[in-house]
Amino acid sequence: MRDARIGGDGPDGDRQGWWRDAVIYEIYIRSFADSDGNGVGDITGIRSRLGYLRDLGVDAIWVTPWYPSPMADGGYDVADYRDIDPQFGTIADAEALIGDAHRHGLRVLIDLVPNHTSHRHRWFQEALASPPGSPQRARYVFRTGLGPGGERPPNDWTSVFGGPAWTRLPGEDQWYLHLFAPEQPDLNWENPRVHREFASILRFWLDRGVDGLRVDVANALVKDQDFPDVAEELDVLEPTKLIDHPHWDREGVHEIYRSWRRLADEYPGERIFVAEAWVPTPYRLARYVRPGELHSAFNFDLLRCSWDAERMRTIIDDNLEAMDEVGAPPTWVLSNHDVARHLTRYGRPHTAVFGPRTELVGPVDLELGLRRARAAALLMLALPGGAYVYQGEELGLWEVEDLPDELLQDPAFRRSDGTARGRDGCRVPIPWSGDSQPFGFGPSGTRPWLPQPPEWKDLTVEAQLGDPASILELYHSALRIRRELPAFGEGGLKWLDGPPGALLFERDPTVLCAVNISAEPFRLPEHAEVLLASAQFPGNQLPPNIAVWLRRTA
Ligand code: NOJ
């Protein structure tokens, strides 16, 4: 039973640990719903679709950055953390969204970007206007360049989007650090002023009723103050096993999160954090969710895994074990706005995911991808803990791989000289209704900021709603059953024996999930009822690329 007032005193509104098994829907705001027809999604658009999200059966939404931004990185370059970009709306719209969402029984998470600001942020502008060594510069990471005139970068660190992680100030020997684009200068978390500022920003939004914050690159804030070379070719989103890396996953970040947790705990109704931390192992990830630190952390292992039963089982076991050791629930993710959509990944024999550098090589079989994506949804939603659904995965959207070069906006595309296509292909606006662009994304006549494939006319919400064969109805059923059956959500799982390529596990003695990742059918265990199947099949043999939830006799 849903409560109409989240965080209030209703039946479910204050459920202790609501987030431990929550399904949270990621809204990439630029591409969700556009109310004013400028081609870019906005807050009023989100408000108009809350009924859809409530009916889908998710518990909460996470909205990607909505702050004023020059959009050098889709809003992850924040110019003012206490305001809303005019193309997305106003503070009043944000407050109205939070209120409306709560009335729909949905909690609201927003995105916090603490590692870097926009170069247009007042602080960075002040830093540029102030001399080396000034307090204004001390909010960012400025260093003297190497060589007689300081003409070489201070060290060999590279930007995630390609090229050096340092940019030199004109006419100076000073360089500033940006682990991402040059328009995203890194803040200096050695400076107490930065800590105070973010505590105040947290309060600003918690006071406005947000239920949680996603912490962008939570593993990057603290840097080795000796600034040593990395001395190794390294991709952040494919981290090496290095524990003592000069800027990823350093011990110092944890003290920041302990202080944030204390702050959030002062608020009623369990306000939560979810960490985005690309770290090499589940055990390193678990350190972010130790008691007194953040509540949850995305586990990106499944998102990086090909359609491979053995590997998936290891990932599930390792994550359950690592999270169990610290008493936190795992948080599963198949797709987000930084990687190629999983339908497309599963439509190829092997896909390597390095964030902006997803390697999509060879022809894709979208039909196979869809079959597997349907099965993967039942797998993910049967696992213990929480899960994130990325907008459009419930519609079976694929990665749009043929966007014209001139429309690509991801800084990764240009900074890699086009060797990485970047992440625009998973950010194409959502098709809601109708037979042609903009497919209800905006008012008729709207030109979405990225073009939608004409074939998406068959994937609109309107086309799928009420069609029992659609992936949207599969998500509806799965989320409803998950909510109704106590076996799902938090807890453990028990593996059952099966042939190679089978994932077969019990959530309690009466509920079982079977996924066939092999090329051969296998015989399902005795059961009383099929609760849900990702595709129809006759008899008792589970065909390849299908998942099923079974009720067994106890
Ligand atoms: C992770 C975000 O998800 C991504 O979109 C962004 O480019 C980087 N962090 C930098 O903020």
Give the low-pLDDT segments: 1-5, 7-12
- Please, what is the oligomeric state? single chain
Question: How many strand units?
Answer: 18
- Sheet/helix structural class: alpha/beta
Let me know the CATH homologous superfamily of the largest domain. Glycosidases
CATH topology tier name of the largest domain: TIM Barrel
CATH class category name of the largest domain = Alpha Beta
Largest sheet: 8 strands, parallel
Tell me the strand percentage band. Answer: 5-15%
Description:
Helices cover 24% and strands 13% of the residues. With 554 residues, the chain is of the alpha/beta class. The protein has an eight-stranded parallel β-sheet with strand order 9-8-7-3-2-1-11-10, with helices on one face. A five-stranded antiparallel β-sheet has the order 12-13-14-18-16. The longest helix has 18 residues, at 309-326. It starts with 22 loop residues before the first strand and ends with a strand. Mean pLDDT is 94; it is low at 1-5 and 7-12.
